[in-house]
Specification:
Blueprint: H1 4-15, H2 28-33, E1 41-46, E2 49-53, E3 59-67, E4 70-79, H3 84-99, H4 104-123, H5 127-138, H6 144-162, H7 172-185, H8 187-206, H9 222-226, H10 240-249, H11 255-267, H12 271-275, E5 282-283, E6 288-291, E7 302-305, H13 308-320, H14 341-349, H15 360-372, H16 377-383, H17 391-400, H18 402-436
Antiparallel strand pairs: 1-2, 2-3, 3-4, 5-6, 6-7
Helix pairs in contact: 1-3, 5-8, 6-8, 7-8, 10-18, 11-13, 16-18
Length: 437
Amino acid sequence: MTTPISVLLDLSDRENLPDLGASWRLSDAKVRNAKPEERAVNLADALGLSLYLPPTGKKVWHYRFRLAGKEQTLTIGSYPEIGLADARKAHRAARWLVERGESPLGYIKAEIERLEAERAKADMGTFGAVTAAWLKATESALSARTVRHRQAMLDKYVLPTLKDKAIDGIKRKGLSELLTGIDQKTPETAKHCRIYIKQIFDYALDQELVQGNPTPPPKVLVNQSSRKVKPRKALPLARLGEFLKTLDDAPDSDPRTKAALRLVVLTWTRTSEVTGARWSEFDLDAGVWVIPPERMKAAEQHTVYLSRQAVEILRDLKKLTWDGEYLFPNKRDPQRPMFRMTLTAWRKRWGFQEEMEIHGLRAVASTWANESGKYRPDVVEVALAHKEQDRVRAAYNRAQFIGELRQLWQDWADVCDEKVAAAKAANVVSADFGKAA
């Protein structure tokens, strides 16, 4: 730890300051045997250096001096931690500064800050150390899933190459070679890694550990740049009834899996938001589900206004998991939520693998809402929990759209019921024709 005395002693040695040639009054014996009195006393040594003794018995070295016409006092430190010889040595350095018109107090403060900055740079001098600090500093604003995702990507693709390299020694050419190699195998991963590397160097810039950000521009990722983004596979709205009917009729499916899929459809939420849901997030009497920020992709609280159908599903589900924390507990470990791939596995098992993805159910709902022309686009975006960049506008929207959101989700639930009823009716007609034949 850097202290005022260590700064002054270092200055005295570095400048090889000569003895001041003063007639010193104190001796080791006098300092050691000095006793406190009823009032504080100063035992003068020479040239402004003194030993201050308050009634408490503590002994402190002071240096009194004038600078710019003002009398000031520098506390050098306490005795016996600082002996007479070191006190005089520190005093010599402080007096040398005063003679040059520089404040010892200002010099000490600036020197301590400089040394601590150098120490911090040494402690965080590697890319791995800076990455660890960046991860810790930014994780509170992200969902747990995003935190895990970026850590896993960095661990696998970036840190094995850069972890032990000096942060200020990494060049753009090296980063380009690293990212190009990743781009050749997994273009989407390369895109994420480039973003994370850029953010890490931005953090290093803020900490004054580097002079610039060497991260190459996105165009370095040739394969990723030319890659066409494929939208999530989504069922046509016309086949939604078939999907829901299959879900209702699936004989061997766990009722909790069925309930989870139904909630994904009815609430427009993501798979992990449903499978990780806790009963503490719900008010079934009010028909409200409040998902906390740490479970949301955008790290912002999201409120779902539950339809009558969703509340009915939840009340039935409560009978199955009434004493547990999670709506959908893991079969092997009830203290953990359902594995999110359970819903994907059901889709594959029942013949919908080629036609849809579970996440694509959100697109089905969004397409219906936007094409209907009955709902404002802003309301649809809030229902999908898409992050509004304008935070003031976002707060206003969420405050004003409650009625419209509740109506939107209820209308959607009614449409789902209509689709299921139509699918069942079509199945009955088909069966009757078969018998007549």
